[in-house]
Amino acid sequence: MKSIHIDLEQPGLVEETTNFKAGFAAVIGRPNVGKSTLMNELLGQKLSITSHKPQTTRHRIHGIYTADDHQIVYVDTPGMHLGGQKSINRYMNRAAKSAFAGVDVILFVIEAGRWSKEDQSVADQLKHAEAPVVLIVNKVDKFKQKTDLLPFLQTLNGKVEFSTLIPVSAHKKSGLDLIQKEILKVLPNQTPIFPEDYITDRSTKFLIAEIVREKLMRMLGDEVPYGATVEIEQFEQEEGTGRWAINALILVEREGQKRIVIGDKGEKIKQMGIDARKDMIALLENRVHLELWVKVKENWSDDERALASLGYTESHN
Question: How many domains, the chain?
């Protein structure tokens, strides 16, 4: 990895250089364009939670990919959105915007065939970005004939400034190698930012809470998931057996939401627990005893103090 360069004009002085590349790539865009799915595929493993609902991602999260000669730190961000005046909406937009600073490249993800006001809002904010912008046109698999996509691609030149445009399908895993090549072009030569065995800067406890929240997003209707969050009350490994004991508290804002989460005779929360436990076993590589509880905490999503106590803090942004 490292080489030694000797300056012959000044014998005795040894300068250490590195052939290793490392840096940050921010993944940004409006909600529901497939940013988290794209990052998971680039990493080669599932890290960020996904669902078909917009604004699934609420926190900024680093996904770390380390190879023999480079390390790419992907920064997955909440979707930048218009409207939504609650404290949690402002938090998510701040988390997304903060990713512009201190990165080596910005991956601006849009949906093939669609350009919305929110896309334009993101593009306008990128005009002041210092890092180069790679425009990622995702979900191109919607177009059976690739020539049908060309008119849309041609319209993008006047809408956003970018150094490179890459059509991809995160779902079909096509075009991902081109993204990596573009990132490596701009990464600086430096030693790894994180240890080689790291896959994220987030704690395992955070990932456990996100697993439960993913099941909420996927199983429930459009309204309830946005009024729900997850807090891990117990996360302990039993001595001797190695089994993990996990208690997760699902917080909702209204009594009616609590009934929906639990479901008829507890069927929905039971199924969420089954699905979440499978993912937790894969993550922790051990047996898991999981208990889910539901509690009403009124107006938590518009209460700055409540948000901070639930982990929605700037320290991770």
Answer: 2
